[in-house]
């Protein structure tokens, strides 16, 4: 038996904009997504331009993005999930409000590109400081 699938909500933040309408509009007008990088110092590299989304606080004003100690990627995820729930006309706390579909009938699809780039930059800085064998992230793999 073939089941039908319905996408009921969408949240998206890209270097082109926040939300599907802004992103599609930017694609249609062939807007450049790459700008000078602002979230980390890329001056020592040969390339200093890249595609960066605006800060989560700018992308999702008024949304509780969690503890400020959460990294940028996690705060973007929280904001994007909130946007998808709003787009689906579901309350942010759907469980408390009685979700209309059983858990086995719900799905979340999540895609990202270079989501942990800032953490990687921190790891590389630490590796450069203490050497590859002593960098903390190396110990995680042991």
What would you note in describing this structure?
The chain has 2 domains: 13-111, no CATH class; 114-142, no CATH class. It is 34% helix and 7% strand. It is built from 5 helices and 4 strands; from the N terminus they run ββαββαααα. The protein has helices at residues 20-28, 56-59, 72-87, 117-130, 136-140, and strands spanning 13-14, 17-18, 34-36, 49-51. A hairpin with a 2-residue loop joins strand 1 and strand 2 (17-18). The longest helix has 16 residues, at 72-87.
Compute the number of helices.
5
What is the multimeric organization of the chains shown? single chain
Query: Helical proportion?
Result: 25-40%
What is the approximate shape?
A: globular
Side-by-side strand order of the widest sheet: 1-2
Straight-line N-to-C gap: 46 Å
- Given helix and strand content, the structural type is mainly alpha
Largest sheet: 2 strands, antiparallel
Count of discrete structural domains? 2
Q: Look at the structure and give the mean pLDDT.
A: 78
* Residue share in β-strands: 5-15%
Radius of gyration: 19 Å
Strands, total number = 4
Unreliable residue runs: 138-142
């Amino acid at each position: 038996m073939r089941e039908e699938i319905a996408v009921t909500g969408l949240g998206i933040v890209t270097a082109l904009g926040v939300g599907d309408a802004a992103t599609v509009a930017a694609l249609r007008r062939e807007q450049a997504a790459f700008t000078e990088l602002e979230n980390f110092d890329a001056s020592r590299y040969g390339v200093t331009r890249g595609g960066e989304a605006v800060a989560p606080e700018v992308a999702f004003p008024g949304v509780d993005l969690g503890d400020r100690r959460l990294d940028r990627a996690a705060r973007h995820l929280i904001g994007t999930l909130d946007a998808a729930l709003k787009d689906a006309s579901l309350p942010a706390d759907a469980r408390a409000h009685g979700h209309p579909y059983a858990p086995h009938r719900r799905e979340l699809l999540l895609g990202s590109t270079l989501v942990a780039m800032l953490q990687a930059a921190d790891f590389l800085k630490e590796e450069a400081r203490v050497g590859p064998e002593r960098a903390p992230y190396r110990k995680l793999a042991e």
